[in-house]
Write a structure and sequence with these properties.
Length: 179
């Protein structure tokens, strides 16, 4: 069983920059708010499927109070001028036994460097070890970067198009006995 609450892995981005993919912590409240503040309205719209920049306290609590069983959240942390900054995040929420809905967001200036793909890989690894079999997501039809991340994940996937939204479903492998 993966210790998701203490999850931490270091990776190197395409440009050579180091990034830590780690579990979101309650102390990330300020860092998360800073990441939202520097995200474009288009990115926030694509993440929340609505115009969203201000959040209520209870919404913020939902984003920060993670049980790491039914709700798992990872952040991608980079160093900026000697200080840690949240460049992106991904989470899943279990919606029925064996199935979780996932969502991603990467700060605009860090998009296209592979952070989304890394978050996908680590989130799927945690989900697989937790025994989940399916990860689902709702994506706007023109959100090519997100659809590309799902395609490149390598997991068998099904894609269902509706007028306003694309439903993506990824099949996870069975966990190996060591996990
Ligand atoms: C979707 C998102 C999380 C992806 O994160 P990212 O760090 O930019 O993703 P990556 O860099 O790992 O990969 C993005 C891929 O999309 C590709 N891409 C980018 N723009 C594209 C476009 N307009 N058309 C086709 N592909 C595109 C990139 O080339 C890259 O593929 P590559 O690895 O083959 O080069 C990020 O763009 C984001 O936060 N968007 C706003 C919020 C959002 O859409 N959330 C999804 C809600 S579930």
């Amino acid at each position: 069983m993966v210790d998701a609450v203490n999850y931490s892995e270091f990776e190197t981005l395409r440009g050579g920059r180091r990034v830590e993919i780690r579990a979101l912590r309650p102390a990330d409240r300020t860092g998360l708010a800073a990441a939202v503040a520097r995200s474009s309205s288009e990115s926030l719209y694509r993440r929340f499927l609505s115009v969203k920049r201000n959040f209520t306290e209870s919404e913020i609590d939902f984003f920060l109070n993670i049980d790491f069983i039914n709700h798992v959240a990872l952040v991608a942390v980079v160093e900026e001028n000697g200080r840690a900054a949240i460049a992106g995040g991904a989470r899943y929420v279990v919606v029925q036994p064996g199935t979780a809905e996932m969502a991603f967001a990467v700060v605009d200036e860090y998009q296209g460097q592979g952070i989304g793909a890394l978050l996908m890989r680590h989130l799927a690894a945690i989900a697989t070890r937790a025994g989940l079999r399916t990860l689902i997501a709702e994506v706007l039809p023109d959100n090519m970067p997100m659809l590309k991340v799902f395609e490149k994940s390598g997991f068998p996937r099904s894609v269902r198009h509706e007028a306003q939204v694309v439903h993506v479903s990824l099949d996870l492998p069975e966990p190996t006995s060591q996990e």
